[in-house]
Structure formats: structure tokens, C-alpha cells
Amino acid sequence: MTAVAGRAVARVATEVGSTVSMRDVVPAPATVAPADGVVYALRPSTRIYASPGAEAVCSYLAAMLRRATGYPFPVADAREAATDEGISLLLAGADRRVGAQGYQLDVTPSAVVLRAVRPAGLFAGVQTLRQLLPPAVESATVEPGPWLVPGGRIVDWPRFSYRGAMLDVARHFVPVPAVERYVDLVSRYKVNHLHLHLTDDQGWRIAIDRWPRLTEAGGCTQVDGGPGGCYTKDEYRRIVDYARARYITVVPEIDMPGHVNSALTAYPELNRDGRAALPYTGIEVGFSSLCVDRELTYTFVDNVIGELAALTPGPYLHVGGDEADATSLADYVMFMERVQRIVASHGKTVVGWHQIAQARLLPSTILQYWATTPVDPSVAAAARQGNPVVLSPADKTYLDQKYDADSPLGLTWAGPTSVREAYDWDPGDFLAGVDPAAVLGVEAPLWTETVRSSSDLDYLAFPRLPAIAELAWSPAATHDWCSFRRRLATQGPRWTVMGVDFHRSEEIPWDVPGSPEWSVLGVQPGPVIPT
Ligand code: TNX
Fold first, then answer.
1. Contact at 8 Å (CB) between 198 and 256?
2. Which residue from 47, 149, 381, 384 puts its CA 20 to 30 A from 22's CA?
3. Whole-number mean pLDDT of the chain?
């Protein structure tokens, strides 16, 4: 394109104005300073500049922008260019407050400059930048534009370092492409941990070389029958790599000593009577248990944990520990103390559902709190001793609960949970006697008893997942339901473009343009009416 044509695009762009406001971002950024009337326009000639170390995020951004704009977006070395034109991703010069995970974004008429300390921060900034572009930027095919970014500055960093989404791939098997799609979706909301609930009574989903029947037999079932499925080690690695490319750490879970019926169907010798358990396709919990007084059980656990630890680059290994109603308390405590040592011997940090606090904990063990009551003395005591807590109170964060009585999918035991109920609580002030500094983060689990497809998954997760993600990322000072529902509404058109089958909750003003600025900046002037 010629320089003259380029200027013409810029002029048209400025006249039309951006349809998006810096105040619409989800999760709400820590600080936002819009520059009224300023826009940056992507052009066919726009280049993206990467400083050393920023290349991967640059390629990701370029690929994303190329898809919908059709522009080439060549990536160049930032050291060979000034930062006053094009888009720059720099691992230097950010406001110090951004820390390891945050970023600073400056948008002027001539440039977009994204700065961070680490690539993960740049990646978070790219998610903000994509939300500042029109929804059509999410299109898989070329759209006409204009591609405008509203001007101003965002300096942003997370409230909590652990921001999680859990996927139960055991109750209904979730194939690799659907997991990747979920990873893509949650990464847009700055989630940085994917907890995979890999095993449960209804299915065993991860191949273990030394115990092959776990998947051969234990992987062939799921809730309501159906073929089930499992991940080969290569497929699991593919998920880990896909998540890692989006700065998401996979946290694999092997649920023990309960929730193990699928293992007990595969190996008779793990059962007390030496007979294989029958496959289970219902949705009850609390009926199965490993034999905690047998050495073979610990050989099994050590083999499984060892192989999974070797496959997993992240620091965590989740050992479950919930609803072990078929195990006596004394046995549970003894088992969980030994299991923690096994995990540590394979170089990983233990995560467990909060019942594990009944056992003696390693100092590093992380508790995931799922109950609905804000009082738990053993969790509070553990937190006081330094054990970090991830919050997943079931009545607020469990995405598998119905929204309301009319929801076609979902369970009800902890809900129903409206979008407002998912959003309107403070993780820093939730658990009695737990200092906010002990809260490592927040996680939204998606159990899949009623989930049979990506569309089911979309329905339950959207729009509640962004609500939980915002609690995990945004400072408490930004917490405001009115602002949130308005900003959330601006995500709707993006999900429509992406084909996300979200729940059009009546609590959210989907049809109303998101921000006050929208009507000023976005609406084309109508004809002048003579007075
Ligand atoms: C409880 S809370 C479970 C899961 C179920 C879920 C259904 C917890 C750690 N376990 O086994 O799938 O409820 O909502």
C-alpha cells in the first residue's frame, strides 16, 4: 500500500473511532488510563517488533492478527527499529509494578508498545490487546476491518499468582482438540493453570506403561456408558505443550484413595477380595477405596505418580483426596502422609483437595478448598503454618452447577449458581482465619457428569469462567458487579464470532453496547436534522 493510501486508512479510522473501550477489558486491569479520541489503526503495512526473548509471543500475536485481517504482519527485531511505529513487544522498560506476570500497554496514534518483565506478562498483554480490537478479530476468516485499538495506557498485574481452570476428563472423556480449545478460551482470561482431573470412578484417562490395563480396561467407560477414551503419553504431552505455549501450567490429578473404581476394574489385585470391581457409569461418589494397608497399593501409587511426574514439566501434582468416604479417617491420614512423600520423591509439590488437611502436611502442600462453608479450622490451621490455599468454593466456582432451575445442564448440589453469585465474593476474605497472603489463587472446576460435548462445556463455563478469572486476576478495588456485567456483555459478540455456545444469562445486558464511551466513539454521526 502507498503512503497516501495508508494515511487515508488512518484518517477514516480516526473518524469512525474505535468501537471498543479500554474500560471494557475482562478481567479488569489494575490501572487503565484511556486517551480520549486517540486510536491506533492496524494497516496492511504494520510490522510487529520483538525484543530478544519475546519472539514466541510475537509469533502468536502475528498469527492471530493475520487470520482475521489478512495483513502480513512481518515480525522483526525490535533492536533494529524505533518503538514509535508499529507494534512492539519488549521485555524491558515496564512499570515495576507489573512484576513477573503483568504488563504495560501503551497505545498512541502511531504505535502499540507492550512491555513486560517475562514472556508470560507479554502474553497476558496480548490477551488485553485482542480485547481492544473489534470482535471480528476473532474470526477464522478475513474480515474487512477497520482494525482500531483505542488509545491510552494500561498497567496491569494479577492479584493472585495461581489462576486455575479444572477440567474433569474422567466423568466424560474430553478429546485432545476439545481440551486445546478450552485452553485457548481460558487463556483469553489470563488463566495460567489447567488442572486435569484425569482419573475417577468412571474412567482412567492417562496411559501408565507399567499398569497398561488402567487405560485398556479402565479407560473404556464413562458416565451413562459410552466409549470413554484416554490419552496416550504423546497426547498428554501435546496438551502440556499446547498449554505451555499459552503460559498455562498443567496440574495433573490422580484422585486417591477414593474415586478409584476404574483402577479397581482394571486390576483385581488392587481390590481387597482380589476380584475386579464392576465398571461404574453412575454419578454417585464416595464408594471406592484403595487398600491402604497393602504394599502393592504403594507400588501402584509410586509407579503412577512417577510416570506422570516424568511427563509433567510443571511443579505440581494433584493427589485428590476428596470424598474418601469408603476409607476410615485413620487409614486416610496414614495414606495421605505416605502419598505426599511419594510425590515429593518424584520432585513435585503436592496439591490436594482440602480434606488432606486432616493429615500431617508437608510444608509445601497446597490445599484446594471446595466446600461451601467459609469456616474450616483444619484448613485455617494449615494456612497459618504456611500451606498455601487455592479457593474453589463449590457454590461459587463450580462451573458444573446449574445457573438456575431452568438450566438444561448441570448438577444442583452446590447451586444453582448465577453469574452474579459466581462473581460476587472476595477470595481475599472468604475463609475464616485464612490470611489473604495464604491464598495462592482461585480455580474454577468444571466437573463433567452432565457435559457430553464442547457445546455443553461452553454453556456451563461461559460466562461464569470469566467471572472467576476476574476474581483471580483483578485487584479487589475494581470489584463491582455493575461494571462487570457491562464488560462481560462486550465479550458476547467475541464468543459468537468464535462459535462459543455461551449461556445468554438474563443477568447480563448482552444487547446493550458495553461502555459509555462506546456510544460516543462508535456511532457514526447521523444526518443533521434542521431545527
Ligand atoms: C464433588 S468436591 C466432587 C466431584 C463431583 C462434583 C460434582 C470434589 C472435590 N469432588 O467428585 O464431580 O462434586 O459437582
1. no
2. 47
3. 93
Mean pLDDT of the region 68-94: 93
With beta carbons less than 8 A apart as the criterion, state whether 308 and 270 touch. no
Single out the residue of 227, 287, 299, 294 nearest to residue 260, CA to CA: 287
Distance of CA 452 from the midpoint of ligand 1 (Å): 17
Is residue 215 pLDDT above 60, yes or no? yes
Residue 408: strand, helix, or coil: coil
Q: Three-state SS for 503?
A: coil
Query: Which pLDDT band, with edges at 50, 70 and 90, does 293 fall under?
Result: very high
pLDDT number for residue 512: 64
Alpha carbon of 319 to ligand 1 centroid (Å): 14
Task: Count the helices and strands in the chain (H runs, E runs).
Answer: 17, 17
CA distance 508 to 493: 13
Q: Which residues line ligand 1 (CB under 6 A)?
A: 285, 322-323, 353, 370, 394, 398, 400, 411, 447, 449
Question: What are the C-alpha distances in Å from 67 to residues 77, 85, 102, 144, 242?
Answer: 22, 22, 26, 12, 19
Place of cell 492496524: 42
DSSP 217-246: TTTS--TTSS----B-HHHHHHHHHHHHTT
Catalytic residue numbers? 323
At residue 473, the pLDDT reads: 98
